[in-house]
Write a structure and sequence with these properties.
By secondary structure, the protein is α/β, with parallel strands linked by helices. 34% of the residues lie in helices and 21% in strands.
């Protein structure tokens, strides 16, 4: 592994130089960050791959949607369309991306949109939604053409960004020092029982700037949801089986593994790349893998994001007779962190309202 890193290091230097120059052009004002007259809440990270952004976006939506008219704007990663598009819960995942489809399915009362140009997307949302009071930008830390009202940087407890390296040596999209642009750093996926000693160690590792607040969150799992209508609901003791096939297309699976192990004697894994679009061959492999499991009391559990990519008719026709469920997750904050984070959101909403 160290030899590979050594061989990749020159590529990381070249990549880092171009990212450094791009950021400097924004810092010097040669590239312009556009401000907007309503709260723009940017949620992003420094690494390629999952860090817990989506559950945090959902937390912000839940915090604001009852009192304010909010919208979520994403680029729609890996979608096959371009330009601005309002997302419907009935959209095909290839047209809008899995995470925007997930947001639209969970929160039909708000507007979810995709646009690779965040500036254009915000302008479209302001024009089309009378009385819009805030826009939440998903995965926008590197999108500096928009000047956010508040920038929230998410980093995974299991691999915080200050311990990582630039692509392709590590997973950093830009140098770790650029984390100073954030107003709030959220350390996601911490243990639910979180010791003050570990908290202090993480703060020492992060070395936040004086203007930065650091909040610590953890993942909570909701009730298991049948992927298709033909699959019966399941809860309580009914969830305890001999074998669970854990089907994932995410970067970090260990928290989900830890959660599922008490529900089965044997936890089998079937993993795909992050944001993977399931082909007919993949779906056939899922079915064959499940059928080959030697026990009778068995089921499949997948993530909510992966479920969005398995809702199409082709997948349903092949998997509808299999007990397959997805596992919604929530981002929760430890008590003092919740107070701090919620206060920052409320302060923003109080300060920046449309006239």
């Amino acid at each position: 592994m160290e030899i590979l890193r050594f061989l990749l290091y020159p590529f990381a230097l070249v990549y880092g130089f171009f990212i450094f120059m791009r950021n400097k052009l924004f810092d010097w004002g040669l590239l312009r960050s556009t401000p907007f007259p309503l709260p723009i809440i940017s949620v992003g990270n420094l690494v390629a791959g999952g860090s817990g952004k989506s559950p945090l976006v959902e937390y912000i939506v839940r915090s604001l949607k009852e009192e304010y008219k909010v919208a979520v704007l994403s680029r729609g990663y890996k979608r096959k369309t371009r330009g601005f598009r309002i997302v419907s819960s009935q959209d095909a995942v290839e047209n809008v991306g899995d995470e925007p489809l997930q947001f639209a399915s969970k929160f039909p009362e708000i507007t979810v949109a995709v646009d690779e140009s965040r500036r254009n997307g915000i302008r479209k949302l302001m024009a089309e939604i009378p009385g819009l009071e805030a826009v939440i930008l998903d995965d926008a830390f590197q999108h500096r053409y928009v000047k956010p009202s508040i920038s929230i940087l998410v980093t995974d407890y299991h691999r915080i960004f200050t311990k990582d390296f630039l692509l392709p040596v590590g997973r950093l999209r830009e140098h770790r020092k650029n984390g100073k642009r954030a107003n709030i750093i959220v350390v996601s996926k911490t243990p639910k029982i979180f010791s003050p000693l570990v908290r202090r160690q993480l703060l020492d590792d992060l070395k936040p700037a004086p203007h930065q607040n650091v909040c610590f969150s953890y993942i909570a799992y909701d009730e298991w949801v049948p992927l298709y209508p033909e699959v019966p609901a399941i809860e309580g003791e009914g969830r305890k089986v001999n074998t669970i096939l854990m089907l994932t297309g995410i970067v970090l699976t260990s928290p989900m593994e830890e959660y599922l192990r008490p529900f089965c004697s044997d936890l089998s894994m079937l993993s795909f790349p992050d944001h993977h679009h399931f082909s007919e061959k993949d779906i056939q492999s899922i079915k064959e893998t499940f059928n080959s499991l030697p026990t009778r009391r068995k089921l499949i559990i997948t993530t909510e994001k992966d479920a969005m990519r398995l809702r199409n008719e082709e997948a349903k026709s092949m998997l509808k007779d299999i007990p397959i469920y997805y596992l919604p997750i929530r981002s929760n904050f430890h008590p003092k962190d919740k107070e701090q984070f919620d206060s920052a959101l409320q302060s923003l909403m109080n300060q920046k309202k449309l006239p």
